[in-house]
Amino acid sequence: MAVDIEELYRKYSPMVRRRCLQLVRDESMADDLTQEVFVNCLVYQERIRGEYPSSLLFRIATNQCINALRSLRRHPVDRSEEVLLAIARTDEEHGAYEARTVLDRIFRNERESTRVIAVMYHLDGMTLKEVAAETGLSISGVRKRLLALRARVQGMKEIE
Amino acid sequence: MSTAPDWLLERILLGEVPHHLQARAEQAMEIPANQERLKELEALHRSDRTAHPAGEAVGEIRRVADGVRRADSVRRRLARRRVWGAGISLATLGLCLVVLPILPPGGHAPPPSPSPPPTGNLGAPAVPASHASSVSDPSQTPGNARESPRTVPSAPTDLVAADLSTRGIRRKGEEVKLQIHIQEGMRVRRLTDGDSVHPGDRLQLSIRAERRVYVWIFSRDASGEIFVHLPESTHRFLALDSGFHALPHAWELDGSTGFERFWVVWADLSFPLGEWKERLRRLPSDADRLPLPPNFSQATLRLPKGPR
Question: Do B38 and A4 form a contact (C-beta atoms < 8 A)?
Fold first, then answer.
């Protein structure tokens, strides 16, 4: 089924742009990323099936933003700092250090889906069940990924 | 229940609350603060639609998507060709195996290659004789204070201490090639040494290796700052099989000006990067060769960088 990109854009671009802005904190970058989200949607339209477009677009936007933030590591000003702090605030018991390390891990060498899972869980405050439903994984799968991520972060911390 | 997050309220606003969020959404809407926020979001959506009309944006989205599809199709075609190429190579090899035993003794079969020189104590594959003979390494001279008896140091400390002068550099430029492409709107152009770049340019690095090697790719700008492009997550040289490898991420150049010099360093074994980086920082920022011990090779591209 062909995607009506104009209708999708008209209805969902405000949500997508707000999501991008929330993660990258830069309006022109959020505009570019919004466009990329819909480009992806058009290019890979055969993968769109049976879910609300808002769920899919939210997930694509999250992933695009994480990728964009990774490339921003090249910039002198690290915008991921904002996301870092947001994560630190949502996970006080682990503190800013761990949040920083978690994010670093997320941005550097975790699987794409794990990065999205971690952002949804830590930053968006979704429950395991909600993250599982959003990403199409099982709850135990999501839990395992998060636990493995935490263990790797803990391991890194001990090494350092 | 506290204030609902925006992502949930936006699903409510769009009328797309999935089953797993139904209960949470219903609870959220019982709270007046969430109802207020929902109204705010509705207004924000309206103003966003006014500021970003679909007509203009969708035209651009379609154009870009067409470009991406074309690029995907070219990539798939190239991948198919590689598969065919591998098949033909295997068939040729098979044919040689069948034909060679029937060649008469003293025929045209080439003489066996000379044995490679001995390797270091890490068991690294030997350097081809042709390369080894071209290496002029005064550190091998008896009595030289920097003499290093080993061709492959066993640890980074030894490796750095062995000799970090410019002696012993070998450039096996054909073994590993560093390629840099720049994105220019819808176009992608390959950069060569001396091509100019600007802050904000997006570069994609890739490697073509003739054989399995361990690589380290980094860049330095005019201020001497070092950025490691590969490996991304470990702190050792990364193993790459022979073939073409695009780095997983493009890089956007920062605002510094002067130049960007990209390096690929490769070896037959993996080494930790820590001390290397430390020593690099002490080199002049515009050094065009790295003082590498034997059995390490390098290739570099310098891209002058100025304001747009």
Answer: no
